[in-house]
Amino acid sequence: MRERKHNKWQHGLTRFEIPALDDYLGMRDGFLPLPVILDPAVGEEVVLVVRDQTPFMEELRQVKPFRLMMKNGCARNDFGPLVFFLFWVENPADLSAPFSSWDCYFDPKNETQKGLWRNLAAQSHWHLFLVGTAGRQRGFFEFENNYGLDQALDFFDEACQNVATIDFNRAKERFMNENTIEDLFRLK
Prior knowledge:
Mean pLDDT: 93
Number of domains: 1
Low-confidence stretches: none
Strand order of the largest sheet: 1-2-6-7
Number of strands: 7
Structural class: alpha+beta
Largest sheet: 4 strands, mixed
Strand content: 25-35%
């Protein structure tokens, strides 16, 4: 295992100024990794952001315990390879179904995208922000990094090594047309 960047939050409860997410997500809601500086002593880290501008955000932020889960994998089709992540918050009332879930994709041949996920994998802790209407912080959670993302990324590098990317967006579109979020959740 690689040396981890120690980024455990040491400053108690706080509110952060959330950057304008429209630059990253447009007007839609969703899930994204984002490089930020939360603590100047730590420097840049990658945080996870869930933006939901509907009343559901109030339900999501009340989930106790709030446990972030992740599955990942890689696939390929006629347009090339892709890596997918499924993140979800466990439903305390029914562990067989998520309370809420989000899919996320990246091009394993794109060094910038891969670098973002490598940086997340190298952190001792993951920070998740819940962002509601008007870019307002609705939750801030910290999770010890025991997700195994570094090993998964090594596997994806090897699996996609000799596969050319023809059109990542079309590869992603086809994959999403053939696989629902529920399909990804049910993967073993």
